[in-house]
Amino acid sequence: MMRHFETKPKVSVESILERIFAIRQINRRDQHTLMAALLSKDSLSEKDQRQINEVYEAIQKGLIRIVD
Q: Residue 41's pLDDT is what?
């Protein structure tokens, strides 16, 4: 029987947000991670929810660039 183990540590939403705001870029993996976190709001603080919304607003305004 094969078991699946996570091989890399989970990166906190807070550290992802800090990096995005610092470099004004978001990659597809981080975008997916934030969207998944936002959809499961019970695990996010109000601050994290607000900041994720700010990221998506900044993307729409062209202030944060999506990179691959």
A: 63
Q: How far apart are CA 66 and CA 46, in angstroms?
A: 24
Element (H, E) at 9: none
Cα separations in angstroms, 13 against 1, 2, 3, 4, 41: 33, 30, 26, 23, 12
- Could you state, in order of their start, the residue ranges of all structural domains in the chain? 13-67
> Helix, strand or coil for residue 66?
strand
Q: How far is CA 9 from the centre of its chain?
A: 15
Reported as a single tens digit per residue, the pLDDT across 23-55 is 999 999 999 999 988 888 677 888 999 999 999
For the chain, the average pLDDT equals 85
Q: And the tokens for 22?
A: 């610092």
**Cα–Cα distance for residue pair 40/23, rounded to 1 Å:** 26
